[in-house]
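Researcher: Here's a chain I'd like modeled. Treat it as a single chain, no partners, no ligands.
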Amino acid sequence: MKAALKRAADETLAALIRGGFAMVRALGPDRAGRIGASVARNLGPLTSANRIARENIDAAFPEKTAAERAAILRESWENLGRTASEYVHLGDLWDFDPEHPNSGRILLDAESMARFERLRDDGKPAIIFAAHLANWELPAVAALRHGLPAAALYRTPNNAAVARDILALRKGVMGALIPAGPAAPIRMMEALDEGLHLGMLVDQRFGRGPKIRFFGREATAIPILARLARRFDCPIHGARAIRLPGGRFRLELTEAVELARDAKGQVDIQAATQQVNDIVEGWIREHPGQWLWQHRRWRM
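Model: Modeled as a single isolated chain. C-alpha cells:
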C-alpha cells in the first residue's frame, strides 16, 4: 500500500511538473528566461539557500564591498532562474552555425571551434570538465549537435516519475547519459573504452574526496576525473558557457590541460584535482554572478 501511494504521489508531482514545463515552453526562451530570472530574484532570498549563498560569496570575496557582493548574489539567483526556465528550450537555444559564427544566440570563437573539431576527429576518448556556470547544459548540447561522440554524467532526481520525464527531455538534445550512483564509475570507464568523450561537472562538494584549496578555503573535491585520467591517460579539456546580454551565450573549450604527474609519471590525483579546481575558480572569478553559490561547497 505504501509503495502504491508513493508511486501515485510521484506521478502526481510529475504531472504538475510536466504542466509547468508546457507553460514555460509556450512562453518561448526569451520570455521564459526573463520571468524565471524575476521569480528567482524575488523568491530566492526567502529560502535558506540564500543564507548559504551569501555566506559563500562573503567568504570568497572579502575584498569586495557589501554592495558588490549583494550584486553577485542577486545575479546568481537570476542566472539560476534563467537556467531553469531554459531547460525545456535547450534544443531551440542552440543555433550555432559554423558558416555564420556570430549570427545567432550561440557564439564560439575560432580557436574553440578548431579545438572542438580536432577533438571530434582525432579518434581518441577524452574527458571534458565543466562547472555550474551560466547554462551548464549547453556544452552537452553542443557535442550532440556537432557530431562529438559523448556521454555525460548527471544526477537523477529522487522522484522516479520526475526522473523519467527529465531523462526524456535530455535524450533529445544530449548524447549518452550516465546517472550518478554506485554503477557510474564503471559506466564512465566503459564510455572511455568505447572512445567516447566523457563530460562531467567537477565543482561540487564530495565528502570522501581529496582536500583542496578553493577560493582560499579548504574544501573536498570530486577525484573521479583525475582517477580516470590516470587510468586512461587521455586528453582533458575544460568547457564553459558564458551568459551574455540579449539571451546569448559564448562557449569556450580549453586546450588540453597537462595534468600534474607524480615521480612515476602517473597523474597525481591530489595535484590534478587541485589543478582542475584552480581553473574552475578562475572561471568563477571572471563571472561570479553566473555560478551556483547556493551549494554547500565548503561543508566538510
